[in-house]
Inverse folding.
């Protein structure tokens, strides 16, 4: 421990002015103004994104009767557990009008090991398999 005051760590006013002037000089004018048009590369990358071609029908929740696969798979992003169920069994247990998102969450919650007691943190975090 030393008896030096804390002011030795702080630059004096002249040094602060010099640092501010140097930072302003280094920053220079911004590359694009807030109202400037976006570059063409940006728009190309937006349109190449897989989500750009989706319609509203593809984003809406899917019902079990609309899914073509025979085996439905859901995995948890939290505990890395995977649950599979055949589509025929899911239709028998939950009905054809049940939403896949709700069925998947219920399948994970039935065997969840991540219980904290807080509603916000409890349970598994589903990751839907697309293939």
């Amino acid at each position: 421990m030393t008896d030096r005051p804390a002011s030795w760590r702080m630059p004096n006013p002249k040094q602060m002015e010099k640092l501010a002037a140097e930072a302003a000089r280094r920053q220079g004018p911004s590359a694009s103004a807030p109202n400037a048009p976006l570059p063409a590369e940006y728009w190309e990358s937006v349109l190449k994104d897989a989500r750009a071609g989706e319609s509203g029908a593809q984003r809406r929740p899917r019902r079990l009767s609309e899914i073509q696969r025979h085996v439905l798979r859901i995995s948890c992003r939290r505990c890395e557990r995977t649950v599979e169920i055949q589509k025929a069994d899911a239709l028998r247990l939950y009905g054809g009008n049940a939403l896949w998102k709700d069925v998947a969450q219920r399948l994970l919650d039935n065997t969840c090991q991540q219980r904290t007691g807080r509603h916000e943190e409890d349970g598994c975090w589903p990751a839907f398999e697309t293939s």
User: Anything to note?
Assistant: Helices lie at 13-27, 40-48, 56-59, 87-94, 100-110. The mean pLDDT is 79.
